[in-house]
Amino acid sequence: MQVRVDFNPHDAVPEVLCLIVPAPTGVVYENQCGGHACLRKSLEGFLVVVGRATPFTEFFARFDGRPPVSWTVEDLDRLQRLVREKVAYFVPDGDSGDSDVRVLLSLDFDRLDDLTEAWLPVRAGDEAAVLVFANSD
């Protein structure tokens, strides 16, 4: 089953930030991304709300809908800080299951070719994942 992630800017809370965690769920999440290029990228897994996208939409706003293909070191550093400081992803504690443990996220520098507005490849611990939010167009 394919599910389109539809972050409508007219919703009451349009600034939703989600994490797509790959898993063999049979559900493929697709998100429009890439600013005015209106790319569509997808990933099978599960979707988790992890916060507000405001810091990320503000970061990408300066590109006026045309995110770069080649990223500067400064841009990557800033995105890395945003990912580490603004995203909260929790999973059940593997030992007891009675509490949750925070999984630290980081920008995935091995997948920078996929990095664009509204589609940020990240590492969630040892797992490859993707942060998604509303595209600027």
Question: What's a concise summary of this model?
Answer:
The chain is an alpha+beta fold and 137 residues long. Helix content is 16%, strand content 39%.
Which features would summarize this protein structure in a list?
137 residues, alpha+beta, 2 helices, 9 strands
Describe the structure.
- The protein is an alpha+beta fold and 137 residues long.
- The protein has one domain.
- It is built from 2 helices and 9 strands.
- The chain has helices at residues 54-61, 73-86; strands at residues 2-5, 16-22, 28-33, 39-52, 89-92, 100-103, 105-107, 119-124, 127-132.
- The longest helix has 14 residues, at 73-86.
Task: Please specify the SSE layout and strand pairing.
Blueprint: E1 2-5, E2 16-22, E3 28-33, E4 39-52, H1 54-61, H2 73-86, E5 89-92, E6 100-103, E7 105-107, E8 119-124, E9 127-132
For the largest beta sheet, what order do the strands appear in spatially?
A: 1-3-4-2-9-8-7
Question: What's the count of strands?
Answer: 9
- The rounded Rg comes to 15 Å
Instruction: Give the overall average pLDDT.
Output: 89
Query: Helical region count?
Result: 2
Structural class: alpha+beta
Number of domain modules: 1
**What is the general shape?**
globular
Distance between the termini: 26 Å
What is the H-and-E element order?
EEEEHHEEEEE
**How is the main sheet built?**
7 strands, mixed
Share of helical residues? 10-25%
Parts with pLDDT < 50 across at least 5 consecutive residues: none
Strand content: 35-45%
